[in-house]
User: What shape does this take?
Amino acid sequence: MAETSELPQTPMETMEKMTESFETAAKEFDALKFDAEVPESVRSMAENTVNQTREAYERGKEALDESIDALERSFDAAGQGATAFNRKLIDIAQRNLNSGFDYAKSLAGAKTLAELVELQSSYIRNQFEVFAGQATEIQELTKKIATDTSGPLKDQMTKSFETVRKAS
Assistant: This one.
């Protein structure tokens, strides 16, 4: 390439300078040798990297599949728990309704004011015991639902932590 300190004056001179620069760069580029063989150590390192990446992908995919399965089991348990909870509430409501009808029937059969007061006192005492028992039933069911729902997630987390611990 000829060195000149002058800038091109016309578009044609600019085009000639650009063409000359391109041809010089192309010759220098062609002079480089690209047929050199890749060293065995580089190929081996690349192969190991690909294998490690594939293994990491498989482990990650497996962990994701297991996590999704745990979530599905947890959601199933939550759905079953909600159904059981609703059934329990309906059962309690039916028992309370039946108890109320029985109480009303017994009040209708009372012959004296003293008998009426005794029936009412007995009913109120009994209802406090019934309500306490029903609260215990609901509390136990709620604990079971929470345990059943969180169980699959807890198991999966434990398994994941064990896997990470073993890998370390």
